[in-house]
Amino acid sequence: MRSHTFSEPVILSVQSIPEHPSAIRMRLPEPPNGDPDDEAFLYRIGPDIFGFFNRCGHVRMPMDLDDGKFFDLEGMIICRVHGARFDEYSGSCVMGPSPVGLYRLLFDRLDSPESSIQITGWEGPIPPN
Q1: Between 2.30.130.40, 2.60.40.10, 3.40.50.1220, 2.102.10.10, what CATH number should domain 2-124 receive?
Q2: Which residues of the chain have pLDDT under 50?
Q3: pLDDT tens-digit series, residues 82-117
Q4: What distances in angstroms separate CA 25 from CA 41, 60, 88, 127, 128, one per listed residue?
Q5: Which of 82, 81, 12 is nearest to 43 (CA)?
Q6: What is d(CA 29, CA 9) in angstroms, rounded to the nearest whole number?
Q7: How many CA atoms lie within 13 Å of 114's alpha carbon, on the beta-carbon side?
Q8: Torsion sign, CA atoms 54, 71, 97, 129
Q9: What angle do CA 102, 36, 50 make, to 5 degrees?
Q10: This prediction's pTM
């Protein structure tokens, strides 16, 4: 598994991150494949925050078909191109044609009045279950 630390972290307000099954998409510096147009997506499940890059390990296409819909009816992350399913907590591929899981965002919670996170980098791809 690879990992990378951003040269400059990205700070994001926790209030701007929607509750699962919604997600916020955003561009981040230094994505895993080097494409500056790659986006990541983040969401909350209760107090926990999760974030992954929006690329399937199968064909490296955006999983949401650019409409921001990342989850199937059971709440798992779905690649809407070929139907691969990924665990919404770990990003590991649990079903479908992807040989690997997703690239997970790394972040720290900041002690601040506005409750923010600092996205520091990424790791992945997450091994399959």
Answers
A1: 2.102.10.10
A2: none
A3: 899 999 999 999 999 989 999 999 999 998 767 999
A4: 4, 17, 15, 23, 24
A5: 12
A6: 9
A7: 9
A8: positive
A9: 35
A10: 0.93
